[in-house]
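Students often ask why inverse folding is considered easier than folding. One informal answer: many sequences map to the same fold, so there is more than one right answer. In these notes we will look at a single instance of the problem. The structure comes first.
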């Protein structure tokens, strides 16, 4: 890698030129990293619904083109900028969409993980240090915007060092890539945010990768019953593998989902998780919890301008609602614990990889997820 350090690298990237348009595989120039930045060679990346939502342009205010999407990945450090001391060329790393500077008030506070400088921001499209991009088209030098601190739909990318977690080179990067977003978000919501207790009951609305990761976390914590809710029954068999014992398809029920849950568990569940990005699902998740002890955790991405469908007085019934980013994990200081738990078999990462394709088939992978046929499609460079 020494021959490329300090130089512009030309590589292949999947570029989004407009909302819903096919990603264009083209040559891009990637500048060297500046102070406290790192340039990575991406080896594996996958697509989550946040990428899908951005690609479709569901939130007009967040649209910026051309742009390199992608944020769930694993790779190797190609070079580091001035001031980067905790990693070097050749290190195996995970890029993380929400960072940890270790110095701000949020980073220093226990239980908080949204760094003041490097927290996830879908509106952000350039680097923190100088407000500029590190990507340009090779054909005419057009600037290309960044996405969620990472932009992993490229063979090489430049990321702030605060948004990178170093991992042991013996760990399988293809599996570790899942921990840079979806699995960590779901498991962490169960462990860190809800703090599920042994013997408790859980309802999960939306059985995509995040919802199933919540179930894995709940199972590992000893939940006595886990209920899965989804309009796609094809997801139910995989749900059984992560400990879900009861399933509800809202399209096949003549009752509201929370009423069905009350029939299964008297009084409702202790914990519910909204992973569908649906206001209606959020309302049902809240109502499905037991008064006095119920906790609802919001995980789905909501692009609708609708507000919370809850009256303030309902909170006096002893139910609470909160949201979670990256499962409440501080990336640099707490993610290594989850990695070790996965290596010990506490969390099964294999079941989340439903498809594997070469990177140049990224548009096929996008369609698989869009059609609900894929959980995680791992793209290999």
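Output (designed amino acids):
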């Amino acid at each position: 890698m020494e021959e490329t350090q300090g130089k512009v690298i030309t590589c292949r990237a999947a570029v989004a030129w407009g909302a819903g348009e096919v990603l264009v595989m083209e040559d891009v120039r990637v500048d060297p990293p500046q102070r406290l930045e790192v340039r990575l060679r991406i080896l594996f990346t996958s697509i989550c619904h946040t990428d899908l939502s951005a690609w479709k342009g569901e939130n007009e205010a967040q649209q910026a083109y051309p742009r390199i999407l992608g944020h769930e990945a694993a790779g190797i450090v190609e070079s580091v900028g001035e001031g980067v001391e905790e990693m070097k060329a050749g290190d195996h790393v995970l890029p993380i969409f929400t960072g940890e500077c270790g110095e701000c008030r949020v980073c220093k506070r226990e239980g908080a993980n949204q760094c003041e400088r490097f927290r996830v921001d879908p509106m952000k499209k350039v680097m923190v240090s100088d407000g500029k991009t590190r990507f340009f088209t090779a054909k005419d030098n057009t600037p290309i915007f960044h996405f969620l601190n990472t932009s992993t739909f490229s063979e090489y990318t430049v990321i702030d060092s605060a948004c990178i977690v170093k991992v042991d080179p013996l760990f399988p990067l293809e599996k570790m890539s899942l921990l840079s977003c979806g699995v960590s978000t779901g498991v962490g919501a169960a462990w860190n945010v809800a703090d599920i207790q042994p013997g408790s009951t859980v309802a999960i609305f939306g059985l995509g990768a995040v919802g199933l990761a919540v179930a894995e976390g709940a199972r590992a914590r000893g939940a006595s019953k886990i209920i899965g809710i989804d309009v796609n029954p094809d997801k139910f068999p995989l749900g059984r593998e992560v400990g879900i014992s009861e399933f509800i398809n809202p399209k096949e029920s003549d009752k509201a989902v929370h009423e069905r849950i009350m029939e299964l568990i008297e009084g409702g569940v202790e914990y519910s998780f909204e992973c569908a990005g649906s206001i209606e699902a959020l309302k049902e998740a809240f109502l499905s919890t037991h008064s006095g002890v119920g906790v609802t955790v919001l995980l789905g991405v909501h692009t609708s301008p609708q507000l919370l469908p809850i009256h303030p007085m309902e909170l006096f019934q002893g139910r609470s609602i909160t949201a979670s980013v990256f499962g409440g994990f501080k990336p640099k200081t707490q993610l290594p614990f989850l990695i070790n738990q996965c290596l010990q078999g506490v969390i099964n990462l294999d079941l989340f990889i439903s498809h594997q394709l070469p990177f140049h088939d990224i548009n096929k992978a996008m369609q698989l997820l869009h059609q609900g046929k894929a959980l995680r499609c791992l793209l290999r460079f």
